[in-house]
Amino acid sequence: MRKAFIEVLCELASSDDRIVLMTGDLGFMALEPFRERFPHRFINAGVAEQNMIGVATGLAEAGFRPYAYSIAPFASLRPFEFIRNGPVMHRLPVRIVGMGMGFEYGHSGSSHYALEDIGVMRTLPGLTIVVPADSSQAATAIRDTHDVAGPVYYSLGKDDKISVPGLNGCFELGRVQVVRQGGDVAIVAMGSISQEAVAGAAKLSKRGIEATIIVVSNFNPDPEDDLFEVLSRFRSVVSVEAQTVSGGLGAFVAYVIASRGLSCRLRVMGVRTSSDGTSGNQPERWRKYGLDRDSIVEVVLGAVSG
Amino acid sequence: MSMAQQTISPKQMRRIILSQSRRANVGHIGCCLCVVEILSALYSSVLRAESPGDPERDRFILSKGHAGLALYAALFLKGWLSEGELETFCGDNTLLGVHPEAALPGVDFTTGSLGHGLSMAAGAALAARLQGSARRVFCLISDGECNEGSVWETAMFAAQHRLSNLLVIVDRNGQQALGLTCDIIDTSNLADRWRAFGWNIAEVDGHSLPDLVDVFSASATTQTPRIVLAKTTFGKGVSYMERGISLTQTQLPVQPINWHYLPMSEHEYQLALEEVERSN
Q1: B101, B126, B156 member nearest A59 (Cβ)
Q2: Looking at beta carbons, which residues of chain A come within 8 Å of B150?
Q3: CB A297 within 8 A of CB A204
């Protein structure tokens, strides 16, 4: 998604002088195309994320569209109050770009994992949140949300190769994408781990269980109506996310089920423990935390039999 | 003193700060009184702004947002705030809370969380430069606020980017929320610290209107951002506040910071007002 991000940003910036790219001194082998094409609109703010968001707020007040880039926890959690009191309270079009969703920074370790950013950012009304599941959806999403009047938080993956079958680059604010149809169980997924849900569904199909897969890729506005409509046909629902279970996708699905009076049962798959100090590559992390395709199969089997 | 300066007199500002604080029965009086001359200088003759909504106006960020009432007084005397609006200060459903909100015309940025305003000011200054505009940006911070690490993030950023259109004023009243700055985080060598961060330093009497106007109006002579260390007296203009005495809460120790928190009794209000009325 990182390549898609910079390509689309260059494309947008070529016809929109308001776009400025700021970085907290990260983005090696990623941001160079923008820096080379638009050197006067590229600002390395140094390793100082609070200041970066504050400067972005001042730029946006004067009419700019600043994109503030860093690794996701540094872009979101460190300057959280500056985001709240800045672009959110002022309703300004600052774009915060958090790179490396979930466990994507693998061997870099727990400081670099983005397991809380969606839950934390969802607490801010007025902040649009975009969590693409693959590169082609990221490209559409970045293009389509360029003109959102208020602030946007993008949670993006580094991986340019992940592709979620059936998604076909579709994205719409306030809507979900249904990438697979099946009548036995609904799996709701968010981010690049959606590919595990699709792979898990293929395994389930071989065992005679057909799953509908819903990809949630944005919040604020929350895709409540879409989710209600799809989930109303199911008795069993499983949500999957590479996030802690507080405030993220599972919490959202639970809210829709409870507030709309649906009778389905939800199993939330997410991270429930704090770091034990270990690290590993993303597939290993998904397995360790019970979020990989085989874990999804296991949880779904339990859901449909229970 | 020009006619323009006379339109926003420190005396009128103090009168408003006292009467509104009394009506609303709120504190933060001492920290409003000590920035009166700074705001008077800015809004009388320094800030270039035709109207609060003029995109080419100079920007002002009250990063020490707890002095919001002093800003409202200046905006009222400038004619950007009506008497009816001013009278809602600290009322219900008002845009005039203790700390300023950008939703109120005339307030450029919402503040209240110390250490935040300066970074937005740097952004505003960078924006002016990128747009080729002669806009200037002024930001008032407090000495206690310099405890915040984010202030120094911006100090480095603004120096690196040579934001000479940014002028920061430090209200050096020597007080912070639980006592004296020298007892909590000593900032007595603030000039050396900012100089080391690459800023152009000026030190000034924060109650001398002509000196403040001069230093704020001076054109930048270097490509560095500028900082004005303005020595002020907490509770300036009301002698019992300057001395740190509460006439009603007599159990409190004598310390200026009392008037960061206390509202005035009617007796205290009348004494304060008389003293302000007697002043020049």
Answers
A1: B126
A2: 48, 50-51, 54, 82
A3: yes
Domains of chain A: 2-156 (3.40.50.970), 177-305 (3.40.50.920)
In DSSP notation, A30-47 reads: TSHHHHHH-GGGEEE--S
What are the backbone dihedrals phi and psi of residue B155, each rounded to the nearest 5 degrees, phi first? -55, -45
Task: Report the C-alpha gap between B93 and A39 in whole angstroms.
Answer: 46
Chain A contact present for B51, CB below 8 A:
no
B102: chain A residues, CB-CB within 8 Å: 89-90
Element (H, E) at A219: strand A218-219
Inter-chain CB proximity B157 and A45 less than 8 Å: yes
Mean pLDDT (chain B) is 95
Contact A61 B119 (CB under 8 A): no
pLDDT tens digits for A164-177? 999 999 999 999 99
State whether B119 and A43 contact (CB < 8 Å).
no
Mutate which of B54, B56, B150, B163 to test chain A, going by most A C-beta atoms within 10 A? B150
Q: Which of A22, A55, A65 to mutate to test the interface with B (most CBs of B within 10 A)?
A: A55
Question: Does B116 contact A85 at a Cβ distance shorter than 8 Å?
Answer: yes
Domains of chain B: 3-278 (3.40.50.970)
From A177, A158, A155, select the one nearest A168 (Cα to Cα).
Answer: A177
Residue B1 pLDDT class (50, 70, 90 cuts): very low
Q: For all residues of chain A together, what is the average pLDDT? A: 97
Subunit contact A85:B112, Cβ cutoff 8 A: yes
Confidence of residue B268 (pLDDT cuts 50, 70, 90): very high
Q: What is the pLDDT of residue B2?
A: 38
> What would the pLDDT profile of A251-288 be if each residue is shown by its tens digit?
999 999 999 999 999 999 999 999 999 999 999 999 99
pLDDT in tens, B18-60: 999 999 999 999 999 999 999 999 999 999 998 999 999 999 9
**Who among B112, B125, B156 is closest to A46 (CB)?**
B156
Q: For the residues B231-253, what does the mean pLDDT come to? A: 96
**Chain A residue closest in CA terms to B60:** A58
Answer whether residue B221 shows pLDDT above 90.
Answer: no
CB-based contact (8 Å) between A150 and chain B? Answer: no
Regions of chain A short of the pLDDT cut 70: none
Taking contacts as CB-CB distances below 8 angstroms, the residues of chain B near A40 are 130
To the nearest whole Å, the CA of A89 is away from the closest chain B CA by 8
- Whole-angstrom distance, CA of residue B25 vs CA of residue A302: 62
Which residue's entry shows tokens 């609070």?
A50
Q: How far is A218 from chain B (nearest CA, A)?
A: 28
